Amino acid sequence: NAGVTQTPKFRVLKTGQSMTLLCAQDMNHEYMYWYRQDPGMGLRLIHYSVGEGTTAKGEVPDGYNVSRLKKQNFLLGLESAAPSQTSVYFCASRTSGRSEQYFGPGTRLTVT
Amino acid sequence: TQLLEQSPQFLSIQEGENLTVYCNSSSVFSSLQWYRQEPGEGPVLLVTVVTGGEVKKLKRLTFQFGDARKDSSLHITAAQPGDTGLYLCAGGAQSGTSYGKLTFGQGTILTVHP
Questions:
Q1: Within chain B, which residues score under 70 in pLDDT?
Q2: In this predicted model, what pLDDT tens digit does every residue of A37-79 receive, in sequence order?
Q3: pLDDT band at residue A98 using 50, 70 and 90 as cut-offs
Q4: DSSP sequence for A40-66
């Protein structure tokens, strides 16, 4: 039981490049979330999903897109990376009826 | 938009000292969670409190949810170097389409010196 896993763990992009971050959970959770973490700002919600095939915008969605084609996977895409997207990205999941979220180990992204 | 103000942002203390971290908001939350995060890892849930006035203890850690469910505190007794880390509070949305979404405080970086 791996919980929540994220790939890759580290990535360096040049401005304008694109990439996809993958999140996978093996707990059969309905809800999945993507956050970014910046110093002094806690965790901010980018996008979330309440179930397979559904996605919704969070607090800071601009510049990101997501897809949830399978229940266990939640993908975060950056179409044209900007230096302002340099951050640590965390994926989380939770089961229906409970508010506790389980987090992955994070992806550290640097955009130069 | 719900906001959670967490204080202090930094805390540097000696082993054996006591400390308290606060989370305050003008909004009411359905639950309040505390997470601990170590460098290079994701946050790990410590506790969830759901009832106004609720107090939960986890060894040397005591968590309290305010009577009005707008604030919470984390108290650590006799801190140890192993308590070092980033502590995050997170409020759960009340209901409707926002149910289950968490609002995080800015975090408290705790350093306990031997």
A1: 1, 94-100
A2: 998 778 999 999 999 999 999 999 999 999 999 999 999 999 9
A3: confident
A4: TS-EEEEEEEEETTEEEE-SS-TTEEE
Segment holding B12, helix H or strand E = strand B10-14
Grouping H, G, I as helix, E, B as strand and the rest as coil, residue B81 is helix
Q: What is the mean pLDDT of residues A25-38?
A: 96
CA–CA gap between residue A37 and residue A40 (Å, rounded): 9
Exposure letters A14-31 (e unless 16+ CB within 10 A, then b): eeeeeeebebbbeeebbb
Using CB atoms, pick whichever of A92, A99, A105 lies closest to residue B30.
Answer: A99
Q: Which of B98, B106, B108, B109 to mutate to test the interface with A (most CBs of A within 10 A)?
A: B106
Q: Phi/psi of residue B89, each to 5°?
A: -100, 155
Cβ B42–A100 below 8 Å, yes or no?
Answer: no
3-state helix, strand, coil in chain A (%, to 5): 5, 55, 45
Facing A43 at nearest CB: one of B9, B100, B104? B104
pLDDT score at B97: 56
